[in-house]
Amino acid sequence: MLKVEQLTKKFGDSVAVDAVNFTIGSGEVFSLIGPNSSGKTTIIKTIAGLLRPNKGQVIIGGYDIATQPLLAKSLIGYIPDEPSLWSGITGEEFLHFVGALYGMDVKARTKKIAELLPIFHLEDIQKDYFENYSRGNKQKFSILAALLHEPKLLLVDEPIVGLDPESAGTARALFAEFARNGGSVLLVTHTLPVAEVISTKIGVLKNGSLLCSGTLEELRIEARLKEHSTLEDIYAVLTS
């Protein structure tokens, strides 16, 4: 579903992402982990088409994000690290707006919104203004908006920040179910226990380069650690 080849992104003379390669197939959850400023958010924004790479290629469902952006983006659900929207719009209107952007008619999006709101128990606040929500509730609406048009690829940047424990568990279950149903998930996170639980593959970034990627067991072998070592143990070794 997603192929990233030799992805390179510079900001002036600074190389934020340096020739990164990875693929994500249907049914997979691929987590990118790494220190601050290692290139995680830059990668996800470039895949989403919000940044242009200096070099390399991003293919989503067979479509090149650079040359076929509308077709590629139609397959994406994007959950940013900082949910925000202009003032004067309600949570319900925000969901309708996103659905309309993806070409959903009023009937289809009204039906889907009614199905999604109970996931995070948002029915009672859907008509409140988005600007007045807590960060956690903004995040919940952003997650539902990404799922609204039934994408094939979810791009998720730090989804758990700001969520209470119950909602964080609900979000993890949502992403895992999305993959079980044949979707693909790219998860960027500092919450290593979350990545350890739901990922089928994990990539470790440092200074814009992908140091290694693979299953948890493959990363244990790469780090020369014993069985049952946690992802936090592996991360500490590989990024030291």
Automatic annotation (TrEMBL):
One Pfam family recorded for the sequence: ABC_tran
InterPro entries reported for this sequence: AAA+_ATPase, ABC_transporter-like_ATP-bd, ABC_Transporter_VariousFunc, P-loop_NTPase
Matching PROSITE patterns: ABC_TRANSPORTER_2
Keyword annotations from UniProtKB, A to Z: ATP-binding, Nucleotide-binding, Transport
Keyword ATP-binding in record: yes
GO molecular function: ATP binding; ATP hydrolysis activity
Sequence ranges assigned to domain ABC transporter in this UniProt record: 2-232
Entry annotated with the keyword rRNA-binding: no
Name the UniProt record assigns to this protein: ABC transporter domain-containing protein
Native source species: Candidatus Lloydbacteria bacterium RIFOXYC12_FULL_46_25
